[in-house]
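To whoever is on call:

I kicked off a structure prediction for a single chain this morning and the downstream step that reads the tokens threw a length-mismatch warning. I double-checked the sequence; it's 234 residues and nothing unusual in it as far as I can see. Pasting both halves so you can look.
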Amino acid sequence: MGVNFKQLVEQVRNQALSEIERKRKAVYAALVTDEVKQGKCVPMPKDFWKNAGLADKVGSQSHSPQSEKAAEQSSLEAVALLILGRAMRAMTVAEIVSIAQAEGLWQCETETAKALLNARLEAHIQAHGEKSQFVKIATTYALRQWQIASAKKRSKMGYKQVALYLLEREKKPLTAKQIISLAISEGLIEITSKQPDATLAGQLHTEMRRLGAQSAIVQVGPRTYALRKWCDEG
């Protein structure tokens, strides 16, 4: 009796398609919960892979201790980034951990989670400097992009105001040209003078003569300025 290869291929194809559809439905049922259907943003459902019938596939993948550690570190920062970005405000480590645990994003003990997160964020800021997505403000953490946006919103400052702001931020003496260069690149002032650095120097000279020892800014070199409090502290 001959074998009908066309029928055999069609039968195998139908079986494969049926299995694919079965798994698709299982994944959909496990992932698309009632909350998701209502348009809510929720974390990955607990036991998703198990409910989807794929736990054995995921569990069979081997992971080195190094890759697991890297994944853990990445997830800590990713979750902090998610929560801060959603809250749109600076938050303490305790607040971030509390939200992460409430949403099932972290499972470890609270004090351990706080210590781990704080260490990871501080290490990230130290390692990446101004390129870090995070910034520490007192006892809270925020996203660096907010500072950039905030600085841009402070545009249209006056010459004296922008000098004071940049000296406070840079924490070092600056020349009039450096102050103007930073102010222009960050959109902090609107230039109306052909020689803005000379205009700044003139305004600061007038301010220092008028206020004397009460002036917050002092001249420490040719058109070079610092904060008076630095001199008092030194």
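Update from on-call: the warning came from a stale cache, not from the record. Cleared it. Sanity check on the structure: The CA atoms of residues 8 and 62 lie 36 Å apart.
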